[in-house]
Specification:
With 134 residues, the protein is of the alpha+beta class. It has two domains: 34 residues, no CATH class; 96 residues, no CATH class. It is built from four helices and six strands. The chain has a four-stranded antiparallel beta sheet. The chain has a two-stranded antiparallel ribbon with strand order 3-4. Strand 5 and strand 6 form a beta hairpin. Helix 1 packs antiparallel against helix 2. It starts with a helix and ends with a strand. The model has no long low-confidence stretch (mean pLDDT 77).
Length: 134
């Protein structure tokens, strides 16, 4: 299935602004094509206190995240310094996690799996923030 028009425009804007090369744009478009259907996503949800439906929903195709990392970004640059996640009852510092290890964990999730990265309650805003890969 082809990527949506909005996704294509975002990639083309990055290319136009010379933030990525033509080769990188092609890889991003291929990654977007591969991520339709049952592909994994990095998801962020923000819930107001007492609500079951999120007021903010962000879904980033997993292949776009890994493409970003492979083009010089880093997993740990997306999270605060010394940020830790729990995987299979093991605490891991996100700064020490290599993208290949994270990809392996995600691939082991299976079709219905979910890897929770963070679940945080903000007392000031009375909101819960969830970050996970599904």
């Amino acid at each position: 299935m082809a990527p949506g028009k909005e996704e294509m425009i975002k990639v083309l804007r990055l290319l136009e602004e010379k933030k990525i090369t033509a080769d990188e744009a092609a890889r991003l478009i291929d990654a977007l094509k591969d991520d339709k259907g049952t592909a994994k996503h990095l998801r962020v949800r923000v819930f107001s206190e007492g609500k079951t439906e999120p007021r903010v929903r962000v879904d980033i195709p997993w292949s776009v995240v890994t493409t970003f990392v492979r083009f010089g970004g880093s997993v740990h640059s997306m999270f605060p310094q010394d940020f830790k996640i729990n995987v299979k009852d093991r605490e891991i510092n996100i700064g020490e996690l290599k993208v290949d290890e994270l990809e392996k964990m995600v691939s082991e999730l299976g079709a219905a799996g979910k890897l929770t990265i963070a679940e945080v309650w903000d007392d000031d805003r009375r909101e819960k923030v969830e970050v996970y890969i599904e």
